[in-house]
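Quick log. Single chain, no ligands specified.
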Amino acid sequence: MIKAVVFDLDGVIADSSAEISGALQETFAEFGFPRPERGEVLAVESLGSAKIVESLLPPERRGDEALKKAVLERFTKVSVERIGRIRPVAGAKELLRFLRAKGVKAAVATNRGETAHALIRALGLGGMLDAVVISSDVKNLKPHPEPLLLALKRVGVEAGDALFVGDSQADANAGRAAGVRTVLYGKKCSGCASVGSLLELEGMI
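-> predicted structure:
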């Protein structure tokens, strides 16, 4: 019996990919670097802001800690400015209402930093979640299982009684390492299920 569902945030309940790409392109242009292509961003956007910035910088500049800090701070500010443009993924609110009606806990485990809380509020989802784990809450980001395990600890549910919904290989690896049944939204998954609509998850709970 599923007692809790843990969600990744970006790309799963927040339709934020375009704004993440836009914020990075704006930031990198301000620093005089080539704007990263959408595909480049998609390949790394599950890694967390610091690693995203580092991986998209020119290889010869990735060791410049002062530069990385400055770019990250600006990217964070631009991201906050764009939060109001982000909308929930289709079916997210309906699914969260379904979980609440069934008495199933709902949580988020994301590699996003402090902007996650502002994003969740902007989406109108704050009252529908029982726990939120962000990058500063843990020592290790996904694909390490720590964020997922902490989310489950906060809602008081064992891994065997939970479902994790992500959208990347990092999520699939985190779920596998945590011993949680994992489903990828909008992506094919080797060794786990995948769905094309969040509302398909209702049949798994």
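Helices lie at 17-30, 38-44, 49-56, 65-82, 92-102, 115-122, 146-155, 169-178.
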